Amino acid sequence: MLGLMQDWPLTVDKILDHAKTWHGHREVVTRTVEGPIVRSTYAEIHDRAKRVSNALKGWGVKLGDRVATLAWNTHRHLECWYGIMGIGAVCHTLNPRLHPDQLAWIINHAGDKVIFVDLTFVPMLEGIMSQCKGVERVIVLTDDWNMPQTRLPRADCYERVVREQSGECAWGGFDENTACGLCYTSGTTGNPKGVLYSHRSNFLHMLIGLQADVLATSVRDTILPVVPMFHANAWGVTFGAPAVGAKLVLPGPKLDGASIYELLESEKVTYSAAVPTVWQMLLAHLQAGRLKLSTLKRVTIGGSACPESIIRTFWNDYGVDVVHAWGMTETSPLGTTGTLTPEVAALPFEQQLPTRLKQGRAPVGVELKLCDDAGNRLPHDGKTQGRLMIRGLAIAKAYFRGDGGNILDSEGFFDTGDVATIDPNGIMQITDRAKDVIKSGGEWISSIDVENIAMGHPKVELAAVIGIHHPKWDERPLLIIKTRPGETLTKDEMLDFLKGKIAKWWTPDDVVFVDDIPLGATGKIDKKVLREQFKDYRWPAPEPAET
Amino acid sequence: MLGLMQDWPLTVDKILDHAKTWHGHREVVTRTVEGPIVRSTYAEIHDRAKRVSNALKGWGVKLGDRVATLAWNTHRHLECWYGIMGIGAVCHTLNPRLHPDQLAWIINHAGDKVIFVDLTFVPMLEGIMSQCKGVERVIVLTDDWNMPQTRLPRADCYERVVREQSGECAWGGFDENTACGLCYTSGTTGNPKGVLYSHRSNFLHMLIGLQADVLATSVRDTILPVVPMFHANAWGVTFGAPAVGAKLVLPGPKLDGASIYELLESEKVTYSAAVPTVWQMLLAHLQAGRLKLSTLKRVTIGGSACPESIIRTFWNDYGVDVVHAWGMTETSPLGTTGTLTPEVAALPFEQQLPTRLKQGRAPVGVELKLCDDAGNRLPHDGKTQGRLMIRGLAIAKAYFRGDGGNILDSEGFFDTGDVATIDPNGIMQITDRAKDVIKSGGEWISSIDVENIAMGHPKVELAAVIGIHHPKWDERPLLIIKTRPGETLTKDEMLDFLKGKIAKWWTPDDVVFVDDIPLGATGKIDKKVLREQFKDYRWPAPEPAET
After folding, report:
1. Distance CA A12, CA A168 (A)
2. Contacts of residue B422 in chain A, CB cutoff 8 Å?
């Protein structure tokens, strides 16, 4: 027997409809690519998004067609999102930080018919367009005054397109499982793979994020998502803000400390979300100028592990509550958040820190498990490391066009590629990437743990640990150090520093010093390149001491 | 093209699974019907709910079968809920405050096969059981020691049933639109009608409620739902608390001020939800004993309009934030909540009060409109009264067994039977019940507004306003007053009191004094009975003054 409740498909067009009807006057403020701050409202965003829909329909874009954006966080990008998704086309967010050849590969793989592009990225797109035969039309996200001369095919100016269309257009009316968004993973192994979000998964993910224990965003917040809209849906913020009618502040292309600070203060931002490097830049700017944060209250940090110093400085010096979050493109992305349990919340701040550094707890709708390499479940004892597997209402079940084949285990869980522990209170901590963990004598050594401790040495700028084949132990850790400019450091100094801070058998068997450590597109150490660089490395003779 | 996200049906068994896995040790504390406080955990609730499922399966209960509960808010009732719903049977919550004959009618209409009953209600059930031939089995929610002698059919003791079953049982695996819960409306006109919730609607309603702008419940909360589980899903709290892993405190049968106060303090409750009368009893207890509230921070009030004095006293004397909510059985029930917009939050408390007295804003997933009697949309100007219509992801589309026929308008909205205004900020205020509003010369007079002002007179205990036929104006308001014990009041005194507080043409044309005013099952004034009592009333001669 079925229930007798209304059929109300979970499609994301309803989110902007809601914002227009109930929060139509609420502001959306953008630092534009052209420079000036532009003030809009949800009612205007809604009207202009409908015009984008009409333009797309005029160009023959249909349900399921892919339409790409190559853009910063701006009101125009937001209008494109809802304009594309509202008619059941798929909004494919391109990551401009990728190599142009990779971008071309992705555009072709996705089969993008139309691309909306920011001025910043016009030259890059011009450079690859001859490789992208399927792209029928490129719209430059600017006004007539700033429209460049360009050899992009059938290029048009966004403001002209918007101006000439009607604001009347029917949205929705399709299955809630219809594809809604497409985002490619950065692809550290093999080609990038596309994650195809559905309207339902985005809507549900938005509701998950609005919980008091997740992002906790409210109509009383002013939200500045520094995290890009091309980076896993801006962590859901650009759905969640209109859903609650929160004022939205979009930083455009300027993500440096001074620019972000200016927006935080002038627009009275209360909540923001970004990767750690953004906050490091902001803190440096604050400290250099002895500045204050007048309105910022909460910050979500994700994308990579957050250094303790950021969390402590934000709290002690600025009264800002930093909440760690973990997720990935395949998880929409919210997997866990570090909002505190009552037991931890009752502790003094310094005693909260070890927990605040962990990635946090799974909300309802997200299921986690730890497995060994054979797929057996491992205990949640806070000590046992295992492969982190995830299942839930907004988790990928396959990649676009079937790439990578079946990606779920027999219980329907997706392998995150992370190695983690989960403690008895359900608090998860990432200890490594599965491909980076060092398997020594049947036990796992977390390369990240060793790196984090090595990074604590005042002379170290960057530290990386990789596993190197060892005849007896299978693998042993090699520590690779880039010292700060002008500093020198010896192997013995470094090993002395580690002593007592890590288990003896985790101690690297050698330390090498390099001029630079390769970073990937998202600013993380590129261990694939590093392993390639060290593929001919041999342990010093005599054999490393037994551990 | 469909998205490539995991299939994860929204079924409520996953909520308790989540609580068991991630918050298994969190307490569920009950004041039992037998008297003692009993401490349990989500892990234990989960285990015992599975035993209930196994018992039901043993008795032949199948997908879609109705299983009733006639019970207070207790851990056992919670176990029954999840035990019933987990196997796809329908949990039918019976309201013990109904007349026994009406209860019998409902049991038969629902086709309940099994009833779980609290000790309190065994005599009532014994009295009607001969009328309920379809009930195969009655389980008394108690232990062996307290099991009564009873002539209920195939009666068994709950603790014995639970003890003898296994805690292993597969839950879920059915369509998310499967019926999950059944709750009858109190039925002020005609027979009661059944609202048949689905797993999907309950799960989505739970997510709506967890938003920071709705109930905002968190793992850091200790939640005491005074609102009964038989009253529209306890406003979703008994789904939301395990979903976030909040400690739950269940008050059992004792809802008086002293008993609630004892639990609030001893269990360190931070959040509670109840109808205004409960809070009036609590405040009276607090004031009489000069007591303090040590931990309570937030209270949601719904079910009927909340008197200003409750909101003010809670805030000024106890630092408790009262949030108004509005909904009904057909809306799962959350329709609107009064969490503040930033503009109102910035005002001093006294200036917030007019807004805090309103019913609040609709969250995403709830759509409201105002219509005139012909179904035309009316403006959101804060002044125009109209029929309040509602559509959304957890709103009824029909009643059980098709009673009442089609209940949606051409746009799919349900008529709430309320009359309301909506202001330009989206804040809704109920002004009357559609059947109680007084239609005078083509305009609508809110009986509730006049009553609320009349209730402000210190000598008035209860005030009711009904429309009486008038030869010229169609209807005019009659004010009916019950004075406080020992007080006397005249018509002129009363009308003088109203002068300047309401529009002149809203002024009642007569005031009559009565010994008592009839109340319905939910404690509200029963205007149906009142209209019947005054059906022969005639306006005093000469005709009432023109207005």
Report:
1. 17
2. none
